[in-house]
Amino acid sequence: MRNLVNEGGDPRMAVVAAGKRGRTWVGLLSLVSLLALVLPTTGQARDAQAIIQELCIACHTMDGNAVVPAFPKLAGLHAAYLEKQLSDFANGYRKQEPMESFAKQLSPKEIRTLANYFSAQRRHDGVVTEPDLLERGREIFHEGDKENGVPACAGCHKPDGSGTPRSVMIAGQNAPYVAQQLTMFKNDERTNDRGMLMRTVAGRLTQEEIQAVAQYVASMR
Fold it and tell me: Which ranges in the chain are annotated with CATH 1.10.760.10?
């Protein structure tokens, strides 16, 4: 008590003062805790936007809705899926320039930040350029081709094309990009699929069927 009371002071006043100081510290700690909940979200969005301005915007645009058909839309992709793809580019498991060079400039934390940012963006509708292929694409997507050992795409990518954290969201994706990636799987030029599933399936599709599937998924809303 002597540490709290000046010589000749009132011990009761010292207790009151100590209580006030205690309440002040509790209040400050509560404020710090509240800021800790709010600030990371703000900082994450700002960091993502800075990275996009530097590396991504020219091809994928700020909200991840690439307007050049050869480039993929990143908007709406499951964060875990996009994080894996960026990590695969950075580690050399998925090969395609300039993405390999760009991904190597990102830390794991920055990759996660970008994945979360693009996952939260709304995907714009796709564009169909060959409507005569839609019916065949629909058949393959929803029913597969049992005669040639092709399973329905909907089995992994879901009937609405929204995908899962392991299987990419393809609804509304740019058709030329989808056709390009299926062709790369078919030719073993892309090899970062789990269990060689996409390479096996794409290898059983003709080039016309690949185009049909690409057109159909672009039409999905």
Answer: 48-120, 131-219
* pLDDT over threshold 60, residue 85: yes
140 three-state secondary structure:
helix
Condensed to tens digits (0 to 9), the pLDDT of residues 8-64 reads 555 444 434 444 444 543 343 343 333 333 334 444 434 899 999 999 999 999 999
Residue 59 assigned to a binding site: yes
Cβ 172 vs Cβ 123: under 8 Å: yes
Fold of 48-120: Cytochrome Bc1 Complex; Chain D, domain 2 (1.10.760)
**Backbone torsion region of residue 206, taken as left when φ is above 0, otherwise alpha when ψ lies between -120 and 50, otherwise beta:** beta
- Residue 78 labelled as part of a binding site: no
Q: What is the distance between the alpha carbons of residues 124 and 218, in angstroms, rounded to a whole number?
A: 10
Q: Is 198 annotated as a binding residue?
A: yes
Q: Output the pTM of the full model.
A: 0.79
Ramachandran class of 149: left when φ > 0, alpha when ψ lies in -120 to 50, beta otherwise: left
Is 142 in contact with 152 (CB distance < 8 Å)? Answer: yes
The superfamily (CATH) of domain 131-219 is: Cytochrome c-like domain (1.10.760.10)
Q: Is the dihedral of CA 221, 201, 180, 133 positive or negative?
A: negative
Asked if residue 60 belongs to a known ligand binding site, the reply is yes
